[in-house]
Amino acid sequence: MARIKDERLAEGEVLVSVTVIAAELSEVMKIAKEISIGAKNAKAIAARAGDKARGFQPITNFIDDMARHTLTMVRQIDQEALSVSRICSQEIRTNDAKRRMHDVIRRVEHPSLLKSFQGVVTDIDARLIALRREFDKRLDHLAELLDSINSDMRAATAISSSCRVEASRAEEFREGLGVVADNLEQAVEVIKKHVKECSSRLQHAQRLKQAIYKK
Amino acid sequence: MKATILYEGKHQWTVFGRDPDKPEKIIDTNQYLVSTPSRALLIDPGGIEIFSSMLAATLHHVSVDQITDLFASHQDPDIISSLGLWDQVLPNARLHSPWLWESFIRHFGLNNIEYVPLPDDGGTIDLGDLSLQLVPAHYLHSSGNFNIYDPQAKILFSGDVGAALEADGAPMFVDDFDEHIPKMKMFHQRWMPSNRAKNDWVSRVRRLDVDILAPQHGRLYRGADVKRFLDWFEALEVGVGV
Ligand SMILES: [Fe+2]
Ligand SMILES: [Fe+2]
């Protein structure tokens, strides 16, 4: 369990962590687009190679589909990260409001003066609980989306080795198709790295969040 | 936060200020509460940092449900940066403020409170049995800016006009006008941009019957000091701070 010194700073850190995810993913988006273009080039080479690259054609289709799926996921994650970030800043404000409401309670000398105020405090508490629920739900969804990219990438790793096998059989097209396999492999590694970074940001946010709730 | 009652009749005027818990380097502000038995108006409720002190102080005079109206004379942060918090406390309230600033003030966070855009020539704020007059004070200093006049209490809330930069814990009223001049001279020269607007305002205010001139910073003027202030301000050349 993460320990936190200053609740406000921790809240700010959560906000930064989830917001950074969107930025981290713009890189993934760029690479996925490149993969998609690469797949189209590979298709062209495979078409020219004809029978010599028969096994290669379905693979390029698969790569293209996968790249497109990754792009869709990235767009969704981008949207989701943005709404999580928005919820997070709302939560910070509401929490700030709550803190200040409790400050009011401390400052008012006679409890009887607070009667009209009780409802406000209850409402704020309810709003905060709703926001926290929403935040947790969306963070889980975000984790699922990241997982889905990860399984795309696992498939892509398998594909790049079949690529290589098929390339080795393609005679004079061996080199051209080999490059396709290399590019794919490299792109997958880079995407994996970014997704891993996103996941660790996400986990960091989740851990901090738990620590804040406990406090 | 210190509360001083300015008028007590069928309705009440209270000024809050000199908050000892106010963080350093934040300009001290006067907040005003006008309350009838059933409704209350907060005038220039202040910045986000003094919100808690301000709400706590207010609750000693009125209940939360009684606060139906807020007024922001202009868009400055010391006037209304607390809006996002009031918005969560008083979701059914109305905020009266210059039309000119609506799209700016909304940046402070306004999701529940209703924004009532004030036309340039003013009008009134109605609190049931009580009606307060909105006195245009554009370019003093803000280009969209209002004062509030209460003909019954003979109080003019003058916003940044008459404001002074004071040491912490200064008294609520001017007791020696000449001694007060150095504390307000720079403020008016630098923050007030227009002699024409100033002279127009002075001549309009001279026609009002004012017992207390109540600015948003520093001490209030009462009795003969009101006229002294108007004379001094009229003679002062403004917009020349640099
Ligand atoms: Fe101002
Ligand atoms: Fe001011």
Folded structure, characterized:
The complex is a heterodimer of chains A (215) and B (242). Chain A has helices at residues 7-49, 56-107, 118-168, 174-214. Chain A contains 4 helices and no strands. The N and C termini of chain A lie close together (12 Å). In chain A, 87% of the residues lie in helices and 0% in strands. Chain A is rod-shaped and about 90 Å long. Chain B is of the alpha/beta class and 242 residues long. Chain B has one domain (2-235): 4-Layer Sandwich (Metallo-beta-lactamase, Chain A). Chain B is 26% helix and 27% strand. Chain B has 7 helices and 13 strands. In chain B, the strands form 2 sheets. Chain B has a 7-stranded mixed sheet with strand order 1-2-3-4-5-6-7, covered by helices on one side. Chain B has a 6-stranded mixed sheet with strand order 8-9-10-11-12-13, with helices on one face. The chains are: A mainly alpha (215), B alpha/beta (242). Bound molecules: fe (ii) ion (FE2) (2 copies). The site of one fe (ii) ion has 5 residues of chain B, from loops.
Low-confidence stretches of chain B: none
Q: State mean pLDDT of chain B (0 to 100 scale).
A: 95
CATH topology descriptor of chain B: Metallo-beta-lactamase, Chain A
> What is the H/E string of chain A?
HHHH
Q: C-alpha Rg of chain B, in Å?
A: 16 Å
* Helix/strand order of chain B, N-terminal first: EEEEHEHHEHEEEEEHHEEH
Helix content of chain B: 25-40%
- How much of the residues of chain A is beta strand, in percent? under 5%
- The total beta strand count of chain A reads 0
* Bound ligands, each once: fe (ii) ion
Number of extended strands of chain B:
13
